[in-house]
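Notebook, bench 3.
Goal today: get a predicted structure for MAPEG family protein from SAR86 cluster bacterium SAR86E so we can plan the truncation constructs. The sequence was checked against the plasmid map this morning, with no discrepancies at the termini. Length recorded as 123 residues. Pasting the sequence as submitted so the record is complete.
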Amino acid sequence: MTTYIIAALLLAFLQTWLLPASFNMKNFPWLGSNRDEPMPHELTVMAGRAMRANTNLQETLPIFLALALLSMQLDIDVTGPAFWWLILRVGHVVTYIAGFARIRTAVWLGSVVCLVMMALALI
């Protein structure tokens, strides 16, 4: 389970900093500045999607981490749903950035089902 927790935190790192910055290279000088001035340009479409995908991850990551840590404390194996949650979350950011709205929604729903399965296993 520790591996999945670390992988989820790595995903959060990628989604929080690297993806939005990489899709917003036109504002790179501002990103490397003290940011005393407002950002000079609006975000690119893909940078905006990356940031919204990150916001969505931040809404479910605490739930995942709490369930994962509880499973370790209670010695209950939830590695199956934890693995699929992580895979689906990677799929979510990819489909979000690519603009596949219906697939993204289905993938998101699958990740929520994985959280429910983790929670039910702990009851």
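The first helix runs from residue 2 to 22. The mean pLDDT is 90.
Flagging this for group meeting.
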